[in-house]
Amino acid sequence: MRALRLTQWKSEPELVEVPEPTPGPQQVVVRIGGAGACHSDLHLMGEFEPGTLPWNPPFTLGHENAGWVHALGEGVTHLRVGQPVAVYGAWGCGTCARCRVGVDPYCENPAEAPVPSGGGGLGLDGGMAEYELVPDARHVVPLPEGLDPVDAAPLTDAGLTPYHAVRRSWHRLAPGSTTVVIGAGGLGHVGVQILKATTATRVIAVDTRPEALRLAEECGADLTVPSGDTAAEQIRDATGGLGADLVLDFVGADATLRLGASVARMLSDLTIVGIARGTLPVSFFGVPYEMSVQTTYWGSRPELVEVLDLGARGLVRPRTTRFALQDALGAYERMREGSLLGRAVIVP
Ligand code: NAD
Ligand code: ZN
């Protein structure tokens, strides 16, 4: 079968022929319907020195996958061949306190996981191929009625990651609250939809690209603000000087973290999802009182079930552009140059 593989750090992935996987006991092979192209893949191709992450190439890209059960390993009884499924992408040890409740991204026994802090497309072979081997059937989540695997694929990361980031701050998002979404790309435009579908917060979207701001508006943003020198002032004005109860930074650069902290309200959350690896100086008088700052990594398996439900009910619908596997590099090129809206989904 064909697979888009990252063969070494700081390189372009290559479309190569690899053997079709066969499932061992408790494993599942999924025929890929769609594999989302994430900006994290660009970070993987372009930025990381060997030793930055706890795993290394070569592996097949694609950590945002859905499709149909193709083959079941011995002992897997709760799935059937042909069934439409999503792949939960974070693969922890399965037995630690976190994994037992489905919080595999924060596995506390990484030496026992298939790869530490990774999964398919992140250290192990992912879904930018005709088939993906899922090493434990618990990561294969049946799709609810009415959700097509190509539409479901982005929900497993571009949906799940903002869902988790929003959900952990639900208690702050009563009517009268404001949320600022910085970066209305693959994750951010879904984040806006999730905020509108699950809370009564007012949503202000910030992006450098006018077309991304238009998409955010279509997704329900109440106000859009171009990224730049006057963004903080505009957001402060729009909140009566108080600032935002939640800032979701889907970029994570020095400038966006600074913007986030400068528009956060006292008693707020500043949640860093984007991995541009900027830094934020924190000092007693430098940031609002009781502004909590956290990074988040992906989401839990129970949360994926909730996101898929939102997708099946039409409450969350990622804007997607489809690319064939042989055109996957073109999708990343468009992401790099900023001409992609929403999410690119590779359809092998
Ligand atoms: P994307 O390229 O689809 O979207 C990024 C958006 O940010 C674009 O619309 C871009 O115009 C906008 N942007 C860039 N610089 C900006 C700035 N200075 N101010 C405002 N907007 C700006 O990327 P994506 O796939 O949505 O991923 C976003 C980030 O989240 C990436 O860094 C990615 O690696 C990361 N990510 C993190 C997790 C996690 O679990 N923490 C999961 C997936 C992706
Ligand atoms: Zn674990």
From TrEMBL:
Reaction(s) this enzyme catalyzes, per UniProt: a primary alcohol + NAD(+) = an aldehyde + NADH + H(+); a secondary alcohol + NAD(+) = a ketone + NADH + H(+)
Cofactor: Zn(2+)
Enoyl reductase (ER) domain sequence ranges: 2-346
InterPro entries: ADH-like_C, ADH-like_N, ADH_Zn_CS, ER, GroES-like_sf, NAD(P)-bd_dom_sf
UniProt keyword annotations, A-Z: Metal-binding, Oxidoreductase, Zinc
Keyword Transmembrane helix belongs to the record: no
EC number(s) stated in the UniProt entry for this protein: 1.1.1.1
Transmembrane annotation, as ranges: none
Superkingdom in the source lineage: Bacteria
Pfam families registered for this protein in UniProt: ADH_N, ADH_zinc_N
GO terms assigned for molecular function: alcohol dehydrogenase (NAD+) activity; zinc ion binding
PANTHER family: ALCOHOL DEHYDROGENASE 1-RELATED (PTHR42940), VACUOLAR PROTEIN SORTING-ASSOCIATED PROTEIN 11 (PTHR42940:SF8)
Protein family (similarity comment): Belongs to the zinc-containing alcohol dehydrogenase family.
Name of the protein in question: alcohol dehydrogenase
Organism: Phytohabitans suffuscus
